[in-house]
């Protein structure tokens, strides 16, 4: 009974803040400032969501861009990183240690923002295009090492048996290694999707076309514009701005944006959950 009670309370510790976010996002701004945060709103008010979706066409474009670059980028990154990690897991690969050190070195030292910007905009010419979300983030050194460690745990006798039957390396990789690696692939996929879905920095640095804005950057821009208008209206002489500008619900908008941004990830996560713990634990213990 005490164990069940402990885990019920522990689960509520995660659930109640999420319910609080929903409640605040549906609260009236004036009541929120007067009464404070409540687990249940005094009355339901969708004003914050109306401000967030004031330009629905741009919001839909940002959802499409974010979802497509997250899914397509994750799929492509998994293939690239797995193809890189598989040779590193083979004992007979002579340059295994050298290549592993080179990959690990990139975890410790990077070129920095300015060289990356020059490379992406002046040499690769992918600035202000969709590919800026895909190509620079195809490989992650930490994820490659996790994949390599998992591949090392797969018995090499399976590959040898396939070779005796005439299978080539790519056939072994795609038809034997990849199906057996679902836990670690799902774990890396979840990391990639979360990272790409929450990406706003790339839009800030490389993109000035509003049709290519990611969802997170668009939400941040909407909030900053709303806070600027509200602060301008508060500091201006009386009568210069209308009352609606003073009543912009910036506080409840922050929580409404949390729901808008996190909603799709809450739907996707249960599909990865059964693989997540197993894939991460195996990669950590053997590493």
Main sheet attributes: strand count, strand direction, barrel closure: none
Beta-strand share of residues: under 5%
Low-confidence stretches: 283-287
Measured on Cα atoms, how large is the radius of gyration? 24 Å
Q: Based on CA inertia axes, which overall geometry fits?
A: globular
| C-alpha end-to-end distance | 37 Å
Structural summary, described in words:
The chain is an all-alpha fold and 287 residues long. It folds into 2 domains: 1-45, no CATH class; 55-286, MetI-like (MetI-like fold), CATH 1.10.3720.10. It is 74% helix and 0% strand. It contains 14 helices and no strands. The chain has helices at 2-25, 29-35, 47-52, 56-88, 96-108, 113-123, 141-152, 156-164, 169-180, 182-197, 201-206, 215-235, 243-246, 250-286. Helix 12 runs antiparallel to helix 14 (250-286). The longest helix has 37 residues, at 250-286. It is globular.
Question: Secondary-structure map with pairings?
Answer:
Blueprint: H1 2-25, H2 29-35, H3 47-52, H4 56-88, H5 96-108, H6 113-123, H7 141-152, H8 156-164, H9 169-180, H10 182-197, H11 201-206, H12 215-235, H13 243-246, H14 250-286
Helix pairs in contact: 1-14, 4-7, 4-10, 5-7, 7-14, 8-9, 10-14, 12-14
Membrane topology: Multi-pass membrane protein
Domain ABC transmembrane type-1: 63-272
Main location: membrane
């Amino acid at each position: 009974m005490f164990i069940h009670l402990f885990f019920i309370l522990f689960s509520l510790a995660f659930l109640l803040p999420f319910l609080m976010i929903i409640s605040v996002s549906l609260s009236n701004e004036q009541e929120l400032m007067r009464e404070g945060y409540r687990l249940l709103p005094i009355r339901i008010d969708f004003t914050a969501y109306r401000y967030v979706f004031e330009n629905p066409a741009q919001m839909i474009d940002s959802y499409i861009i974010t979802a497509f670059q997250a899914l397509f980028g994750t799929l492509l990154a998994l293939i690239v990183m797995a193809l890189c990690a598989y040779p590193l897991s083979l004992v007979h690969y002579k340059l295994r240690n050298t290549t592993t050190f080179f990959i690990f070195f990139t975890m410790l030292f990077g070129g920095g923002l300015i060289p990356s910007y020059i490379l992406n905009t002046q040499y690769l010419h992918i600035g202000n295009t969709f590919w800026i979300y895909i190509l620079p983030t195809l490989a992650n050194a930490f994820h490659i090492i996790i994949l390599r460690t998992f591949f090392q745990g797969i018995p090499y006798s399976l590959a040898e048996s396939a070779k005796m039957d005439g299978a080539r390396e790519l056939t072994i990789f795609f038809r034997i290694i990849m199906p057996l690696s679902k836990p670690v692939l799902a774990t890396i996929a979840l990391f990639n999707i979360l990272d790409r879905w929450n990406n706003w920095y790339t839009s800030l640095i490389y993109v000035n076309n509003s049709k290519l804005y990611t969802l997170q950057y668009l939400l941040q821009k909407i909030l900053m514009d709303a806070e600027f208008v509200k602060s301008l209206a508060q500091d201006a002489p009386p009568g210069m701005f209308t009352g609606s500008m003073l009543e912009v619900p910036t506080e409840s908008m922050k929580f409404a944006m949390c729901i808008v941004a996190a909603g799709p990830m809450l739907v996707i996560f249960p599909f990865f959950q059964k693989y997540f713990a197993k894939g991460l634990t195996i990669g950590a213990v053997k590493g």
